[in-house]
Amino acid sequence: MPTVALTDRFCASAKTLKSTPRTDYFDETVPGLALRVTEHGHRSWCFHFRAPGDGKRARATIGTYPATSLAAARGKAIEARQHVEAGQDPRRVLAGQGAAGMTLAGLVDAYLADPEKAALRSRDEIARRLRKNVVPIIGGVKATELRRRHARTVTDPILRRGSKVEATRVFEDLRAVVRWSVENEYLEANPLDGMSKPAESTSSNRVLTDDEIRTLWNGLPKAMARSVDCQRIIKLCLVTAQRVGEVAGMTRAELDLKAREWRLPGDRTKNAHAHVVPLSDLAIAIIKEAIADARESAWIFPCGKDSLSPVAVARTILRAHETSEERPQGRFSIPAWSAHDLRRSALDGMAKLGVLPHVIAHVANHRTVTKAGVTFTNYVQYAYENEKRKALDLWAGRLEAIITNADHVKVVPFGAA
Question: Domain 3-90 - what CATH class?
Answer without folding.
Answer: alpha beta
